[in-house]
Here is the input.
Amino acid sequence: MKLMKMILNVGRYLSEAALRIFGPNKDDYPATGAQPFTGDPYKERSGKH
Here is the structure.
């Protein structure tokens, strides 16, 4: 009885992992595209390389 329950739990664990990996994405990221550079380049060097 305990062995059968353990086997079922392992099977459920593996199948849920496979569904997360191969399932559709649920990401809700905003579409950003390329961001323009609006800062000024640093003109002074520190002397350390």
